[in-house]
Amino acid sequence: MPKRLNMSRKKTIAIDMDNVLVDIETNWINWYERELGVRVTREAMRGIPEDQAFPDPEAARKLLYQPGFFRGAPLMEGALEALEELNREYEIYIVSAAMEFPNSLLEKHDWIAEHFPFISWRNIVLCGDKSVIATDYMIDDHLKNLDFCKGIPVLFTAGHNIHVTKYTRVNNWKEATALFKRYLVA
């Protein structure tokens, strides 16, 4: 099979969805409260695996399999403007390890189409294992994905990764945009 060429010759960035483009922490907290009647704070999610922040981790995890969980999740602040800007200088790929949650495939596709209509379907990768991704850069909140990044990994801050010091970190989309502007001139 012929290899698809990056005809634009732009550098490429793989950008994760959950906790990077999508505010999954807020969505999960809201769903948990609605379904189980218990409010968990974002502070409770700091430094531990996401599901462990909830009083009933198993019930919290089951929410991820519910229809509508991913489709209605809020956009991360500044993500739209950042991707519009980065898309001018880089080839952007939205990448999500979505296979574990079958409902999420269509929901994530529709979410991307709504929030990022300028991203071509050719630049959306819903996979099971991100180690197959071979972009120049990868922005993700999970070490399990960044550890196998073939390019330059960038850690996006989320509650569960606040103690990680292994990678270049960005705390928000303003910082991410500034970092990638610096990479252009480096």
TrEMBL record:
Pfam families: NT5C
Positions of the catalytic residues: 16, 18
Residues in the signal sequence: none
Enzyme Commission identifier(s): 3.1.3.-
Gene Ontology molecular functions: 5'-nucleotidase activity
GO biological process, one term: pyrimidine deoxyribonucleotide catabolic process
Domain of life of the organism encoding this protein: Bacteria
InterPro entries recorded: 5'(3')-deoxyribonucleotidase (IPR010708), HAD-like_sf (IPR036412), HAD_sf (IPR023214)
UniProt entry tagged with the keyword Hydrolase: yes
Keyword Cytoplasm: no
Keywords carried by this UniProt record: Hydrolase
Family per similarity comment: Belongs to the 5'(3')-deoxyribonucleotidase family.
Record's protein name: 5'(3')-deoxyribonucleotidase
